[in-house]
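[Discussion] Sanity-checking designs against the backbone

I'm trying to build intuition for which residues belong where. Below is a structure token string of 361 positions. I'd appreciate it if someone posts a full sequence so I can compare it with mine line by line.
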């Protein structure tokens, strides 16, 4: 079969691979809608270490082509939403983790980029289908909205969970790409009073405001932490979420967060980044500023809950979608757009099961 991924570090292209086969508990999916992610481009550039001959992609909706003989809840032809995190639920690591992200090793539940081929393929494999797939709702949820639950929404919401946002909190969100925008939305849903977003792209600012951001900081206009301290009369924010940036983002977060506050990072740092803790801003170790970092939980129940929020009009994550491509052969174009991060981009998607409506008009 054909798939798109990394030939070697810094070289993406088409790959020929054998068709995957399901184990007794597994399923094989034919994708119908996929989305490139910065984690895909990050991996292609070697940010997660050396890899080669790897099909990329980890965000997908699709149709089941085959299931293993022990799969109970799904059959050929079912339309499903596929979480980006698909744990091995029989692993002892899952039993010891509250987030289910680290089944047999660090981030081991994130299988599509770390241990097997991903979703930019004619067919892809999902382990333990009954626990890791969700049937696409028949009404109330668009394909694009459902696709955003698989990673962007789940990860952004996990940031607010890690930060333990409380009613009336002042929350700083560093980076308002798609994950940061979902963190803004989650903080608003959890009752934050003030949400300060760090970003410069007009389209991201517009969507952040629609999700509940109350203030904005432009990192081009001066030190972010100093601006935040000025905005909060020197107090700092209660919670800081890091959803983007390089290694210096942790330094910024510690300075901007008040004593006894929480810093939560869902940022996928580069393997070469150095994360520095400013000792004075951390109270020489006495400030009770908690620093937490983590990867989003996985599995079917997590995504079912995300879909419930959409179906009941609590949130519309389809606002993240700014660019649409049509056809399997358009995956490289969408991938390159995500890699370049055009000023008008938030999230591209690729429809594999329909033609461009503009071409038919």
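Best answer:
Here's mine. Compare freely.
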């Amino acid at each position: 079969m054909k798939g798109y991924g990394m030939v070697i570090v810094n070289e993406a292209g088409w790959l020929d691979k054998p068709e995957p086969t399901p184990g007794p508990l597994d399923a094989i999916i034919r994708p119908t809608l996929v989305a490139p992610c910065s984690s895909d481009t990050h991996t292609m550039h070697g940010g997660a270490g050396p890899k080669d001959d790897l099909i990329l992609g980890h965000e997908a909706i699709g149709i089941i082509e085959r299931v293993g003989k022990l799969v109970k809840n799904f059959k050929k032809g079912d339309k499903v939403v596929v979480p980006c995190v698909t744990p091995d639920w029989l692993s002892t690591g899952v039993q010891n983790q509250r987030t289910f992200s680290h089944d047999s090793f660090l981030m081991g539940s994130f299988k599509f980029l770390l241990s097997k081929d991903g979703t930019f393929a004619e067919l892809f494999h999902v382990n333990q289908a009954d626990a890791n797939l969700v049937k696409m709702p028949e009404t109330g949820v668009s394909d694009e909205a459902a696709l955003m639950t698989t990673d962007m929404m789940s990860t952004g919401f996990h940031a607010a969970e890690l930060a333990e946002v409380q009613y009336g909190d002042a929350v700083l969100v560093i980076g308002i790409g798609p994950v940061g925008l979902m963190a803004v939305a989650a903080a608003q849903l959890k009752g934050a009073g003030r949400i300060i977003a760090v970003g410069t792209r007009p389209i991201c600012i517009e969507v952040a405001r629609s999700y509940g951001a109350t203030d904005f900081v432009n990192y081009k206009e001066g030190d972010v932490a100093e601006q935040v301290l000025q905005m909060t009369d020197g107090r700092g924010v209660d919670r800081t979420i890091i959803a983007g940036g390089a290694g210096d983002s942790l330094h910024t977060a510690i300075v901007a967060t008040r004593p006894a506050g929480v810093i939560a990072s869902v940022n996928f740092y580069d393997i070469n980044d150095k994360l520095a803790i400013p000792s004075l801003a951390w109270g020489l170790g006495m400030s009770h500023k908690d620093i937490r970092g983590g990867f989003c939980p996985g599995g079917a129940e997590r995504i079912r809950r995300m879909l419930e929020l959409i179906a009941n009009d609590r949130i519309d994550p389809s606002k993240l979608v700014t660019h649409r491509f049509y056809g399997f052969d358009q995956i490289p174009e969408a991938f390159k757009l995500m890699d370049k991060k055009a000023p008008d981009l938030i999230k591209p998607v690729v429809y594999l099961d329909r033609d461009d409506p503009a071409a038919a008009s």
